[in-house]
Design goal:
Blueprint (H helix, E strand, L loop, with lengths): L3 H10 L4 E7 L5 E7 L7 H4 L1 E4 L13 E6 L5 E2 L7 E9 L12 H15 L4 E13 L1 E6 L4 E6 L36 H13 L4 E6 L6 E6 L2 E2 H21 L3 E3 L13 E9 L2 E2 L12 H12 L1 H8 L5 H4 L9 E6 L4 E5 L11 E3 L8 H18 L20 H5 L8 H10 L2 H4 L6 H19 L4 H7 L3
Length: 477
């Protein structure tokens, strides 16, 4: 644990000039403001610093806008992208007043409550999360949506569509073909050095990295894998990960996006989430006699995930673009079944190791545009509900399914339930099925209603605008 006094000492030793305070809005974007280091004292970590909550998506009305940020000293890092030495800290949001009441719409508070609820259940004392966030690196990005114009353009120099390009620089070939971006070496893979720079920046900022590599999509898709951590700490790291990826890319003259499906006809970007429960430093998901080496508890956790998956996806696949990715044919996990090794299943049990510590379940439908605090909390609550209710997936039509689903007959496929087909469908599911999220007061009805309101507005914005393809289909009808 880091104390406020240690933060102030570190600031003096590093010649810090500014302190940056970061927090998360309801949809899951980092927000921030900075203060001179002289404005920070040990009292700041108790009394907080005020800000206008009415200007943050999903927060307060204008008539109750005053709010406080309480810095978390354990989150402090030296910001790697500021010109002046700056300490950055993640903050908790509280209401003003002598009680300093945590703000119920603060996503980080929800994640804290989820961890506390887990401990109160007695099922486990720690939940570990290991997300695999994918992203694209583009060399050019243009988009516009106005009353008379709808357009989007992305470009990656290494993509196959540039093989015939003429321009001011030589065309040296060595381009990637669609769906062949998983693991070619240089010169086809042009992004090794920039990914390494991202990894080293992450490690300097306290993120443990396991691997980096090019991903399947030909147009600059990448993945950097973080080592697992507890719920709140991992959610903090996901936002720091995205911050580092985007800013290293910009420093290198590229643009990084975590948008799930920016390219048609190639794989999209997901965020497969690996999970395990532990008690007294002992893993609870391992059983050498069980299917795929997992315990009955792990299977019931899976049962809860698959039972509540449509509702969970309103949080875990949180944009309209998420459902451009969740379609068959692109390794997308659209099938609500579990399996060992099968990547088209919504839940996979990785088989790389027989070690009990490595036994985990992988929920594959989420993508990295989600709010990680809300998504990890919802996944934990769904899994815990499966354990409490004794939901064994094999008894509810959720598999296991170890066949190649894409080679099954149409009749066989009809027996397999699928993820929602749109954000609106997922939001409908969340409105029908959210009681499991309210257990232990982890989520509140107020927060869920505000979240659904924001996402319904986004879905309506997309639904009302003509798409460019519609002109090709219908302009001359």
């Amino acid at each position: 644990m880091t104390t406020p006094a240690e933060i102030l000492r570190r600031a003096r030793e590093n010649g810090v000039r500014m302190v940056d305070l970061k927090f998360t809005d309801v949809p899951g974007m980092w927000q921030h403001f900075s203060v001179p280091v002289k404005a920070i004292s040990e009292d700041t970590f108790i009394e907080g610093i005020g800000f206008d909550g009415s200007s943050i998506r999903g927060f307060q009305a204008i008539n109750e806008s005053d709010m406080l940020l309480i810095p978390d000293p354990n989150s402090a890092i030296m910001d790697p992208f500021t010109a002046e030495p700056t300490i950055s800290m993640v903050c908790d949001v509280t209401q003003p007043g002598s009680a300093r009441t945590p703000y119920t719409r603060d996503p980080r508070f929800v994640a804290r409550k989820a961890e506390e609820y887990l401990q109160r259940t007695g099922i486990a004392d720690t939940a570990f999360f290991g997300p695999e966030a994918e992203f694209f690196l583009f060399d050019d990005v243009r988009y516009r949506s106005t009353q008379n114009e709808q357009m989007a353009f992305v470009d990656s120099d290494e993509a196959h569509w540039n093989s015939g390009r003429n321009g001011g620089t030589p065309n040296l070939g060595h381009r990637m073909r669609p769906k062949e971006g998983y693991f070619p070496v240089a010169p086809n893979d042009t992004l090794q050095d920039i990914r390494t720079e991202m990894v080293l920046t992450m490690e300097d900022a306290g993120i443990d990295v396991e691997a980096q590599h090019h991903e399947v999509a030909a147009g600059g898709q990448c993945e950097i894998d973080m080592r697992y951590d507890s719920l709140v700490r991992m959610a903090d790291k996901v936002l720091l990960y995205k911050y580092i990826v985007k800013n290293v890319a910009r420093r290198r003259g590229k643009s990084a996006t975590f948008m799930p499906k920016p390219i048609f006809g190639d794989n999209g970007s997901g965020m497969h989430v690996h999970m395990s429960l532990w008690r007294n430093e002992r893993p609870l998901f391992a059983d050498t006699e069980g299917y795929a080496g997992i315990s009955e508890m792990a299977r019931m956790f899976i049962g809860g995930l698959l039972t509540h998956a449509p509702a969970v996806l309103a949080l875990a696949a949180s944009g309209t673009n998420s459902y451009r990715r969740l379609v068959p044919g692109y390794e997308a996990p659209v099938n609500l079944v579990f399996s060992q090794r099968n990547r088209s299943a919504a839940v996979r049990i990785p088989m790389y190791s027989d070690s009990p510590k490595a036994k985990r379940v992988e929920f594959r439908p989420p993508d990295p545009t989600c709010n990680p605090y809300l998504t990890f909390s919802a996944l934990l609550m769904a899994g815990l509900d499966g354990i409490k209710q004794g939901i064994l997936p094999e008894e509810h039509g959720f598999g296991p399914l170890d066949r190649n689903i894409y080679e099954m007959s149409a009749c066989e496929k009809r027996e397999i339930r699928s993820v929602p087909g749109s954000l609106d469908e997922a939001l409908d599911a969340l409105e029908r099925d959210h009681g499991f999220l309210l257990e232990g007061d982890v989520f509140s009805v107020d927060l869920l209603e505000k979240y659904v309101e924001i996402k319904r507005e986004q879905a309506a914005e997309v639904r009302l605008r003509p798409a460019p393809l519609e002109f090709a289909l219908y302009y001359d009808a």
